[in-house]
Amino acid sequence: MPQTIHRGIKSLIDEANAQIETVSAADAIKAAQSDDVVIVDLRDIREIEREGSAYHARMFASAWGVYEDPATGSAVAAFAGVVEAFERPRDGESMLTIEQGFEMGRPSLIALGLVIENGALVSATIGGSVVIVSSGSLDL
Prior knowledge:
By secondary structure, this protein is α+β, with helices and mostly antiparallel strands. Helix content is 23%, strand content 21%.
């Protein structure tokens, strides 16, 4: 059934924000260990922590044993299609910085390169620096 809404987006967002509980990354990691807790990050991806970043990302995959990933290059690769579909970048080459991991104290900057031709995404590249967090060897 159709309905008419007589409120603006600001009042709707304020109403939604009143229902949201904000927790620290540490508390979210503890809570994620419970089967009856669902964590959703409702932050606008354009609310950046660092000047010069284009987007802010977070990735939770507790079902895979990853409570929060500080840098998810594979997700950024898929995000290239989202940028193309919703941001409609101009033809040519562009480089965007996606920030991630700030809330967990492991800030990461992922470079997303886009090539747009005739309004369509024709290629994407992912880049950034890495930090060794563990090492080992396998003896066969």
